[in-house]
Design a protein that fits this description.
single chain; alpha/beta; Rossmann fold; 6-stranded mixed beta sheet; 14 strands; 13% strand; disordered C terminus
């Protein structure tokens, strides 16, 4: 994947490199057709009320990375979303037998004074203090909206103090205004690690594969992936989850890269292939579904050259057990209506699984969209047909109750924030992220766990119904009657990078 590089040392946003969009309304058939023809327009919703941010999401590429302190060159509020990730990071560390340290991050706490006069001196003081206090091996420095608007010279500050600091400092320009598609942050973060931290391999470990995973991949997911791939005699190493800086340096020594999620993993894999020739297999957009386990194992065997003679036998055993366990669940799920809201990797994968289980997918909502997810969307269209409504609308909260009011699903899939909206309307809600107490969502075991959890929610909808009776609506009825908020977008914008 060749990408144009800006003079400050980072890749272009996904709107320019992949043609990503954050606004679309139509059917899955039309979305597939226009994506294949590269005919999607960069535009905006007429009404927007929420989004993630590249300045926040970039932390995912350093999530759980040991000996690392993330430095936000920002006002104090920018890194606050990481507070809840501390729990996830600490539990993952404890699960792996490590000290549960959580995440380490600081903010330069930019105020009005720094926005007017510049914050370079504040950044210099914070970097020296962090190096002295925490003694990290790596300090990624996130230049957010405020610092980017002022024009603080991050590279200049680093150059001035690099002889006084032991840690390696990585400047990352990730202000939210750089891209409407927050997944661009994954390109920024992976590029920095591949170009500035990784080293030329001194040897090759043919039985080892790298798997880049986001924070939404809980410890139970890692366990299921290890279990399945170990049956081939292959080892895996997950990044950045609980990896050391030395692990990152030696990542090119692996036989190849295997994806858990194409949204998160593609830039890591593509940049490593560009720089080190490390091969990767783009066989699944998200390893959720009935058939993806087999595809995933075949890809692992192909990359390493290990287990090819037994792969089909193992896949057959796993799929036979899965279909046996799914049979009674499919009978109970058949014909149930489901509405799915998720990223452009997880969303189509969950929708395809629901369709394979005999459910009626009444509507889809993806946060953003580009050509990376065409294969899984085609699989869904082949099973469910081309007429399923789909909206691309970032994380806009107002789209959820509008769609629920219109399509009246029996079950809703979404993230934690949007689940509340569905529950307040009396619809049982299922989290798209893993619930550690109910098992993995990945591969063979994951398909069964998802089906089992959907049956449980549909069998016991009392919580949602009681909440609906005793809670105030998030949006007024006159707003819910205004369907243009859900569908209409601006004309094509003239956007240049």
């Amino acid at each position: 994947m060749k990408r144009q590089i800006k003079d400050f040392g980072g890749p272009l946003p996904r709107e320019a490199s992949l043609g990503s969009v954050v606004a679309f309304s139509g059917t899955v058939g039309k979305l597939y057709e226009r994506t294949e023809k590269e005919d999607l327009e960069i535009c905006e919703k007429l009404f927007q009320c929420g989004s993630a941010c590249t300045g926040n999401e970039i932390a995912q590429y350093f999530f759980g990375l040991r000996d690392t302190v993330m430095v936000y060159h920002s006002p104090a509020g920018c890194p606050q979303w990481l507070t809840f990730l501390n729990v996830i990071a600490a539990s993952s560390q404890a699960y792996e037998g490590l000290a549960p340290e959580g995440l380490k991050y600081v903010s330069t706490d930019l105020t009005t004074n720094e926005v007017v006069y510049g914050g370079e001196e504040r950044l210099r003081e914070v970097l020296l203090w962090v190096d002295k206090t925490y003694k990290p091996k790596l300090m990624p420095i996130f230049s957010t909206c405020a610092a980017g608007t002022v024009g603080d010279d991050i590279e200049g500050v680093i150059s001035d103090i690099e002889n006084q600091v032991n840690a390696k400092m990585l400047p990352l320009h990730c202000g939210g205004f750089r891209s409407q598609c927050w997944a661009s942050a994954f390109d920024f973060g992976s590029y920095a690690l591949v170009s500035e931290v990784m080293e030329e391999p001194q040897k090759k470990e043919q039985d080892l594969l790298n798997i880049p995973v986001p924070w939404t991949c809980m410890a139970v997911e890692l366990e299921e992936m290890r279990r399945v791939i170990a049956r081939l005699g292959i080892r895996v190493r997950f990044y950045p989850r609980n990896a050391t800086i030395e692990d990152v340096r030696k990542a090119p020594e692996a036989a190849g890269n295997l994806m858990y999620c194409v949204t998160f993993g593609f830039p890591w894999c593509a940049y490593m292939q560009d720089r080190f020739g490390t091969p990767y297999e783009e066989v699944v957009t998200q390893n959720i579904g009935i058939e993806v386990g087999g595809d995933w194992l075949r890809a692992a065997a192909k990359l390493t050259g290990i287990g090819k003679d037994v792969a089909e036998e193992i896949i057959g055993e796993e799929e036979e057990l899965l279909m046996k366990r799914l049979k009674p669940l499919k009978e109970r799920l058949k014909g149930k209506k489901v509405y799915v809201t998720a990223s452009h990797a997880r969303g189509p994968a969950i929708a395809r699984l629901c369709a394979d289980l005999g459910m009626e997918v009444v509507a889809l909502h993806f946060y953003h969209w580009d050509k990376l997810s065409l294969p899984i969307l085609k699989g869904f269209v082949d099973v469910a047909g081309p007429d399923v409504p789909v909206v691309i609308g970032d994380t806009n909260a107002h789209d959820i109750p509008l769609a629920i009011e219109q399509y009246k699903p029996d079950l809703y899939f979404g993230d934690g924030a949007s689940m509340e909206l569905a529950l307040k309307m009396g619809v049982p809600a299922m989290p798209i992220q893993t619930n550690p107490s109910r098992g993995a969502h990945s591969l063979f075991t994951g398909a069964y766990n998802l089906a089992k959890e959907m049956v449980m929610l549909l069998d016991y909808p009392q919580f949602a119904r009681k909440l609906w009776k005793h809670s105030e609506r998030t949006f007024r009825k006159d707003f819910l009657g205004n369907k243009k908020n859900l569908y209409e977008t601006t004309p094509k914008c003239n956007v240049s990078y």
